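Sorry to interrupt, but I need a hand with the structure work. Could you write out one complete protein record for me, on any chain you like? Just paste the record in under my message, thanks.

. . .
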Amino acid sequence: MGRPSLAEERREQILRAAAQSVARYGLAGSTQERIAAAAGMSRSHIRHYVGNRDELIDALWDHVITPYFEATHAALTGLAPDAQLRALVDFLFGPQMARNEDDLVIEALISGAMHDVRLRGRIYDSYSRLEREIAKTIREAVPGCESAESLQLAYALICMAFGHSTLAPLPFPASRPAGLKVLAMQMIEALRADRAGQAAGR
């Protein structure tokens, strides 16, 4: 297998430098000059290997969010529907979602999206795709579950998981995240029982 191309190496180097810069200085403070200096390159290298600022931000978003989505997919691959749902909850509230520097980048980009319609749409596309994938997992494991309610529960699970990740650096007792995971499963089981009851009543 051949080595990655120089362009791929340079692009990865730039994105790592951009992530470090955004984590430290925020999105507004991460100029192309600052990122170029951190990467040991010139601003023209940034434009050559990644593109303009919007293209750099898009690439940075993919750089930090894609590993989470890939890990979520990997955690569910090859499992039966009910086992997939349990594995999903284990993943969302497990050590895989532990706080790291990429979370600072994700939060900075989401904050930047408040004033950037283009970036907001980009981020929304990613999270809505995740919401749909989680909703699909729910529907496959809960017979009779409709699309709207699976999406609502998927959104709730995403909010709970990312809220938990945001508060993770604070010294809450270990029972808090454990209780959150139990609550997530209770929500799923309540939906399952409701759908089973409806099916029995027909």
Q: What stands out?
A: The mean pLDDT is 92.
